[in-house]
Amino acid sequence: MDFSKLLTDPINEIGILLTNLLAGLGLAPGAIAVVQAIIGVVVIATFCLLLPLFLIWFERRIVARMQDRVGPNRVGWQGLLQTIADAIKLLIKEDITPIGADVLVYNAAPILSVIAVIAMWAVIPFAHNMYGVDLNVGVLYIAAVGSLGTLAIMMGGWSSNNKYALLGAFRTAAQLVSYEAPMILSMLVPVILAGTMSMTGIVNAQSQVWFIFSAPIAAALFFITSVAEVGRTPFDLLEAESEIVAGFHIEYTGMKFGMFFVAEFLHAFTVGSLTAVLFLGGWSGPFSDASPLAGVFWFMLKSFLGYFIVILMRATLPRLRIDHMLDLCWKFFTPLALASIIVTMLVDKSLTTLLPNADAWARGGILFLANVLLGWATVSLLAASARKMRLAEEGGATGAGHDAPGDGHDEHAPMDAHAPAHASQAPAH
Amino acid sequence: MLNQWMFIGLFLLMGAIFPGAPILLNSLILGPKKNNPAKNSTYECGIETVGDTWVQFKVQYYIFALVFVVFDVETVFLFPFAVAYNSVGLFAVLETLLFILILLGGLIYAWRKGALEWV
C-alpha cells in the first residue's frame, strides 16, 4: 500500500482496499457497495455519538471557568471521563413511563430527536474528499431534517401527560417553529452566492472569499437563529427550569433523558459546523488541499470556534421573555433576512451585469459594503423606533402609547413601538 | 444518485439503532423495575395533578405556527431560484424580487392584523 496516497486521499484509498478485500471474499459488486456504505455510516454515526461525551465535559469546564468555579476535574485526566461516569449512571437508572402517557410517542421522541441531529451529519463535509454523501440538495436536506428535531420535542412534551411538559411543547410550537423561518431564509444567501445547494459546492465557492465577508448579516442571522433552534440559553424557554421545571423532558428518566441531552449538545456543535461550512469556508485553510487531515483540522477548529461562542452566549445572557423573543423573530430577524436576500441578489446581479470581469475580492468587497449599508439602515431604524417608544413613554402613560399597532409612520421598523412588552425597557426618568 | 439516497436511508436507520440500543439496555436489562402507582404518577413538584392534561389551549401558539407554514412553503420556492441564480439575467432577479415583496406583504398584513402580538 502506498502511504503517501493514504495521506492525500485516505477515504478513497481505504475504499479501494476494502473493495479488494470484499471481492476476495467473493461478494457481488452491489453487495460491496452496500457494505462500504454501512461502514461509512457506522463510522460517522459513532463519531457523532461519541463527540457529545467530549462536548459536555468541554462545556462544563468552560462555563465553570466563566463562573469562577473549577468544574469537573476528578474522574480521569482533568475530569475527561466524568461524562462517561454520568452515562453509566444513567444506564442503571429506572425507566419510568408516567400514568396516562401516550406510550408509543413517548418512547419514540428521544430517538427521533437524536436521528434529527445525526442525520444532518450525513451531508456535512469534513474535508474535500471526506464526507458522508454529497447531496445536490444538501442545504434543503439540512433544513428538512433539522425540523424533525422540533417535532421530536413537541412529541415528547405532548405525550408525557404532564402540564409542564405540555407548556414546554406549546412553547416549542411558538419558538422553534418561528425561528425556522429566518434560519432557512438566511441559509438562502450562501446558496445564492454559490449557485448550488451541495455542501461541498458551497465550500468550494468560498475558496477565495469566505461568505462571512460577502454576507455578514446573513451569517449573524443564521448563527443566532440556529442557536434559538437548539433551544439553549438565552432561548431555552422550552425547558426553562425556573418556570416550568424542566419543560418537555420533565417525565423522562434514565437513558431517554440522556438521549435528549446528547441531541442538544450535538445540535449545538452542529450549529458551529454548519456556520463553518456555510460561511467560514468549511475545511479550507493552509495545506487543506494537500492533505484532507489538515482540512479536518481546520473544519474542527472552525466548528469549535462556533461552539465556543454558543457556550459564551449561554454563560453570558439571561433568558428572554416569550413575547420579546417572538417579536425579535418576526419583527426583526425575518424582515432583515428578506432584506439581506434582496440586497445580496440585486447588488450581485447588477455587479455581474455591469462588470463581468470583476474578481472574487471585488465582488466580496462590494457585497460587504452593501451589507454594511443595510446594517447601518437597520440600526438607524431601530434607533428611531426606540426614540419614538421612549417619547411615548415620557409623553404620558395613558394617551400617546396606545394607538393601534398599524398607524405607525414606518411600518418597516423592525420593532413595534407600541407593544407593551417594550415599554418596560425604556429608561425611567 | 440512488446510492446517495441509500446512504441517507442507512444513516437514518443507524440513527435510530444507535440511540435505541442504550435505551433498550437501560429499560430492559440494567435498570431496576420496581414500579408503583405513586412513582408512575404525573410529576408536579409534589402536588396531585388536577383534571385532564390535554385541554383546550391558548390559540396564540397555533397562530404563530400557521404564519410559519405560510412562510416556510413560500421560502421553499426560493431555493430552486437560488440554484439557478448564476444562469439567469437581471430580469429574473427582478421577478424574484417581486415574489419576495409579496412575501413581505404577507408579513406586513399579519403584523397589522395583530397576529404577531403576544397577548
List keywords for this structure.
heterodimer, A: 429 residues, mainly alpha, 2 domains, 16 helices, globular, B: 119 residues, Methane Monooxygenase Hydroxylase, Chain G, domain 1, 0% strand, flat
Q: Extract low-pLDDT stretches of chain A.
A: 399-429
Helix content bin of chain A: 55-70%
Radius of gyration of chain A: 24 Å
* Count of the domains of chain A: 2
User: What average pLDDT do the residues of chain A reach?
Assistant: 81
Rg of chain B, Cα atoms, Å: 25 Å
Quick summary of this structure?
The complex is a heterodimer of chains A (429) and B (119). By secondary structure, chain A is mainly α.
What does this structure look like?
The complex is a heterodimer of chains A (about 425) and B (about 120). Chain A has about 425 residues and is an all-alpha fold. Helices cover about 70% and strands about 0% of the residues of chain A. The N and C termini of chain A lie far apart (about 80 Å). Mean pLDDT of chain A is about 80; it is low at about 400-429. The longest helix of chain B has 29 residues, at about 1-30. Chain B contains five helices and no strands. Chain B is an all-alpha fold and about 120 residues long. Chain B has helices spanning about 1-30, 35-40, 60-75, 80-85, 90-110. Chain B has a single domain, classed as Up-down Bundle (Methane Monooxygenase Hydroxylase, Chain G, domain 1), CATH 1.20.58.
